[in-house]
């Protein structure tokens, strides 16, 4: 298993390098001049040219990308044009807020989503199924922006129970996490329903029923573990996306996360911040996918064996003996 | 199966109930930002600020609608930074109204100003200035700050204007300027924050997170993108009787909350979570200011016309159709400025009759009584015909910045121009792209811009038709008139009028209206603003 983890970590290096070169190239060719933004509307073309030289923006492409990669390998993404602070410091300061929000949202999405999906699958085509899928449909259709503002209106402005914006104690994460999790609940519910339906009528489940095992035991010990693989995959990919920052939620609730940082950097052509953020997100996503793959090993021993490089077990069926 | 269903139903009911209970009980209270409102405790703290002032510490919550960005002393321009810099830093001089000269400006660090000639000025600073850490501020520190800002190149005009700075003694410096252009000295003396060189070097990070300054309030905490907390500087150096409006310390602590979402700002004001908002605009303002101009009960509002005028710029490069004067005039006649003001900005502004704000120091009120391409479809069509275009023949590109206000303006203008048979393609770009393309004449034929000045109309003219416009506007006579009216020796109303009429008759830039902005607070607060529109938090007075 350790070898597998090490191999995956080593594979991350070319992935991150590839992402870095790609984002550098995209930002290089995207129109818009950061020097012009920094200096404002009163700057003449000559002054903009001086600032470009000071920022190194007039260097050839290959020199710029080489310098960027060398610095990146030393953990240096440069200084943000907007904040005048090291990009890595900005990211480290902001990431905990995004991580906490994403974790809470994911937990809510998983718990509620799996429950709803399982109920829907077990009670397929009944009213429970329809209600669960209706909740899922509402969740996937409702714009998070609107939901966030409605939650603020009800729970903060009208009832005064929860804060409307900012960061602080646990109460500041309740509304953002709930608004952020609804889409996840919907997708997890649908995925869970689909996965459980596939497994609930499998032969081994039928055999267990025939042997008199209770439905609860069948569900918990046979069905859900086998249905978890696609659910974990979907959850992992959702979580990885959340770690890239949920811009709308962060904007509505004024949370200083990665999402707002990245969008402001893009709007202001803050090249070091954009590159740093994208590379950071790529690293985080890769780590999340690694964790997802390790979860597979925990859920399914066959996958664990494959990771450990063990040979497949031989079949128990003996070779037939030839008649003399 | 039934038992399983029952179990699942109970489990889900329990989970949802637990979740709801967790959400609804809300373990809030006592948090410092975005506090929930509606409790008696919160009401006493915010809506009865006068009572709180007599009971102990007073706290002022302000909402700002842009990220603060860089708070270091040598940082660049930025909306969020301008909301906070007058509270965090002190400058040599500051404005307290438009059109002031250096002699009239309020003194902060500078005690005396002596204009030696058109390009030289002597500044004497107070001899007892100390920052919050007790460092004495001398002319060496002032020089250090100016050199720091010059080296950063974040204020291009500063680099244009300042030739050199000489230290005469511990409290005296001579500033030498490269130009005698009007507004130069005023600009230079109000743009550079003054800090101690020792404190700056000791900070280790260029004071990018916790600047130590001479200001009446000191930064205690900054959470990038969320808030900036300041506390009263108990050792503020300036004597009470000599303090300007910027040095007033009405509050013990101030917290500036970044609230970029307009609806959130409104809810925060209504719930009392914040005491004031620096700017409330658009549709949200209707929650606080009625259509007749009266303020809604429970609130106070302060509207102020700013130094910015929305101006239509034409690309007069030879290959552009707008090298034709009659065509430019046709488009101007086709616009109803009052309707654009009402439709795009909900009437929050003042019509202007030049390419500059109406409150500029040398704005001549006589211009408001004269024809300024007043809306006339007949005149517009006649000019279009004179220009040699038939209705429907011409399609033009109108470039604007991608904001709600500009987009509305563009759509209204598009409709007016269609009325005379000119089709318009609207190019709406983000700020970065817009600033890149504004000096590239192959990207647009007409451009909508906010042209600003800190004091005089000639400042706006310089931005509209000066050297920045050289790629698409070449008129040596106009450049000469601009140079004459910008020089302090020849900056007379007569020369400014001559330039105004020249720009107007040639229709190089057409002003629509001056933008106004409104700060809103609860009715227990008297709002105090800088002439450029920023709320001066420390000076906002609680009810007595």
Please supply descriptive tags for the structure shown above.
heterodimer, A: 324 residues, mainly alpha, 2 domains, B: 544 residues, D-Maltodextrin-Binding Protein, domain 2, Dipeptide-binding Protein, domain 1, 3 domains, 11-stranded mixed sheet, 17 helices, 33% helix, 22% strand
Approximate strand percentage of chain B: 15-25%
How many structural units, i.e. domains of chain A?
A: 2
Number of strands of chain B: 19
What does the radius of gyration of chain A come to?
A: 25 Å
- Overall strand count of chain A: 0
Overall mean confidence score, pLDDT of chain B:
88
As for the CATH topology of the largest domain in chain A, it is MetI-like fold
Domain module tally of chain B: 3
The general outline of chain A is globular
What structural category arises from helix and sheet content of chain B?
alpha+beta
Major pleated sheet of chain A: none
Q: What's the story with the biggest beta sheet of chain B?
A: 11 strands, mixed
Describe the structure.
- The complex is a heterodimer of chains A (324) and B (544).
- Chain A has 14 helices and no strands.
- Chain A is mostly helical and 324 residues long.
- In chain B, helix 15 packs antiparallel against helix 16 (476-486).
- In chain B, strands 1, 8, 9, 10, 11, 12, 13, 14, 15, 16 and 17 form an 11-stranded mixed beta sheet that branches. In chain B, strands 4-5-7-6 form a 4-stranded antiparallel beta sheet.
- The longest helix of chain B is centred in the first third of the chain and has 24 residues, at 2-25.
- Chain B has 3 domains: 18-86 and 215-298 and 523-542, D-Maltodextrin-Binding Protein, domain 2; 93-199, Dipeptide-binding Protein, domain 1, CATH 3.90.76; 308-517, Dipeptide-binding Protein, Domain 3 (Dipeptide-binding Protein, domain 3).
- In chain B, helix 13 (404-419) links the parallel strand 14 (394-401) and strand 15.
- Chain B is globular.
- Mean pLDDT of chain B is 88; it is low at 19-54.
- Helix content of chain B is 33%, strand content 22%.
- Chains A and B meet through helix 2, helix 3, helix 5, helix 7 and helix 8 of A and helix 1, helix 6, helix 9, helix 14 and strand 16 of B.
């Amino acid at each position: 298993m350790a070898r597998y983890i090490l191999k995956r970590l080593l594979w991350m290096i070319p992935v991150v390098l590839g992402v870095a070169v790609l984002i550098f190239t995209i930002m290089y060719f995207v129109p818009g001049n950061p020097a012009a933004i920094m200096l404002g509307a009163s700057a003449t073309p000559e002054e903009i040219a001086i600032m470009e030289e000071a920022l190194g923006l007039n260097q050839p492409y290959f020199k710029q990308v080489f310098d960027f990669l060398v610095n990146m390998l030393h953990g240096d993404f440069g200084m943000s044009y907007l904040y005048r602070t090291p990009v890595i410091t900005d990211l480290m300061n902001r990431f905990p807020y995004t991580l906490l929000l994403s974790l809470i949202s994911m937990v809510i999405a998983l718990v509620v989503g799996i429950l709803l999906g399982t109920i829907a699958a077990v009670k397929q085509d009944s009213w429970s199924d329809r209600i669960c899928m209706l909740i899922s449909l509402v969740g996937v259709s409702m714009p998070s922006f609107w939901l966030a503002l409605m939650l603020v209106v009800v729970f903060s402005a009208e009832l005064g129970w929860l804060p409307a914006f900012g960061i602080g104690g646990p109460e500041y994460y309740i509304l953002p996490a709930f608004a952020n999790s609804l889409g996840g609940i919907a997708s997890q519910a649908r995925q869970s329903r689909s996965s459980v339906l596939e497994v609930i009528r499998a032969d081994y489940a039928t055999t267990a029923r025939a042997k008199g095992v209770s439905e609860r035991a069948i569900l918990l010990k046979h069905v859900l573990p086998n249905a978890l693989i696609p659910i974990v995959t979907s959850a992992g990919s959702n979580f990885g996306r959340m770690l890239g920052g949920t811009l709308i939620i962060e904007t509505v609730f004024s949370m200083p996360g990665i999402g707002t940082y990245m969008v402001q950097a893009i709007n202001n052509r803050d090249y070091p911040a954009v590159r740093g953020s994208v590379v950071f997100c790529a690293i985080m996503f890769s780590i999340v996918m690694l964790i997802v793959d390790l979860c597979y090993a925990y859920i399914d021993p066959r996958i664990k064996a494959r990771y450990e490089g063990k040979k497949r077990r031989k079949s128990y069926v003996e070779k037939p003996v030839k008649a003399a | 199966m039934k038992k399983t269903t029952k179990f699942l139903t109970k489990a889900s009911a329990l989970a949802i109930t637990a979740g709801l209970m967790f959400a609804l009980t809300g373990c809030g209270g006592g948090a410092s930002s975005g506090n929930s409102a509606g409790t008696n405790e919160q009401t006493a703290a915010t809506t009865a600020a006068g009572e709180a002032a007599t009971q102990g510490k007073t706290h002022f919550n302000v909402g700002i609608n842009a990220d603060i960005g860089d708070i270091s002393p040598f940082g660049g321009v930025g909306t969020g930074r301008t909301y906070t810099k007058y509270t965090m830093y002190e400058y040599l001089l500051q404005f307290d109204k438009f059109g002031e000269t250096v002699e009239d400006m309020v003194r902060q660090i500078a005690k005396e100003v002596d204009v030696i000639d058109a390009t030289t000025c002597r500044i004497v600073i107070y001899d007892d200035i100390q920052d919050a850490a007790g460092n004495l501020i001398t002319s060496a520190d002032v020089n250090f700050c100016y050199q720091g800002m010059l080296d950063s190149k974040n204020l291009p005009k500063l680099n244009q204007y300042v030739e050199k700075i000489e230290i005469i003694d511990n409290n005296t410096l001579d500033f030498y300027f490269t130009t005698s252009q009007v507004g130069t000295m005023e600009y230079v003396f109000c743009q550079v924050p003054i800090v101690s060189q020792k404190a700056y070097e000791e900070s280790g990070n260029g004071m990018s997170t916790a600047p130590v300054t001479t200001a009446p309030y000191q930064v205690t905490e900054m959470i990038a993108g969320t808030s900036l907390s300041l506390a009263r500087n108990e050792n503020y150096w300036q004597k009470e009787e000599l303090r300007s409006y910027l040095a007033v310390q009405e509050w013990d602590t101030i917290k500036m909350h970044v609230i970029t979402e307009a609806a959130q700002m409104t809810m925060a004001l209504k719930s009392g979570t914040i005491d004031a908002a620096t700017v409330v605009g658009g549709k949200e303002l209707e929650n606080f200011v009625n259509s007749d101009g009266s303020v809604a009960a429970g609130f106070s509002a302060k509207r102020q016309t700013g130094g910015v005028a929305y101006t239509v710029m034409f690309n007069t490069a030879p290959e552009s159709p707008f090298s034709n004067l009659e065509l430019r005039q046709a488009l101007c006649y086709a616009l109803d400025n009052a309707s654009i003001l009402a439709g795009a900005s909900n009437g929050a502004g003042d019509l202007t009759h030049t390419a500059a704000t109406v409150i500029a120091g040398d704005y001549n009120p006589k211009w408001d009584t004269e024809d300024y391409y007043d809306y006339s479809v007949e005149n517009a069509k006649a000019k279009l015909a004179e220009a040699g275009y038939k209705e429907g023949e011409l399609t033009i590109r109108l470039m604007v910045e991608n904001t709600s206000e500009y987009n509305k303006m563009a759509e209204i203008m598009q409709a007016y121009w269609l009325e005379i048979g000119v089709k318009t393609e609207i190019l709406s770009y983000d700020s970065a792209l817009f600033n890149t393309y504004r000096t590239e004449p192959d990207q647009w034929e007409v451009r909508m811009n906010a042209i600003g000045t800190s004091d005089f109309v000639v400042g706006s003219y310089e931005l509209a038709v000066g050297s920045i416009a050289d790629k698409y506007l070449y008129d040596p006579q106009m450049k000469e008139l601009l140079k004459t009216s910008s020089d302090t020796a020849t900056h007379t109303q007569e020369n400014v009028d001559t330039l105004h009429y020249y720009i107007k008759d040639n229709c190089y830039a057409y002003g629509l209206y001056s933008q106004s902005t409104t700060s809103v607070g609860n009715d227990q607060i008297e709002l105090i603003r800088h002439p450029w529109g920023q709320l001066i938090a420390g000076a906002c007075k609680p009810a007595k």
